[in-house]
Amino acid sequence: PGNEHFGTVARTRLQLPAGLWRITTLSDDGVRVRASTAAEPVIQNWTWHGPTSDQGEFRIDARAAADPAGVEIFVEHFELDGWAVLEFTLERVGD
Fold first, then answer.
1. How far apart are CA 42 and CA 44, in angstroms?
2. Helical H segments across the chain, by residue range
3. Full strand arrangement of the beta sheet holding 71-79
4. Which residue from 13, 56, 60, 87 could staple onto 42, CB 3.0 to 4.6 Å apart?
């Protein structure tokens, strides 16, 4: 799509055990991350910015962990100009 003025949308479903989960992103520019088990976005930094790290946490309860459809993770990103980066990390941080 070129180096500037584009967007990225990614969606996946994962079988994850119950517990507390953390998502970390490194983005330039805007980023928004949703998890199907969270009412609000886990990360929302929908701004024009240089490379920036953001974190958010969400919980998966026993019912959601047992759902055969899994937990949906949805990532949106936009790039305006300058640097272009999107990194995503998912880690379990507690029960």
1. 7
2. 62-66
3. 6-14, 71-79, 31-35, 43-45
4. 56
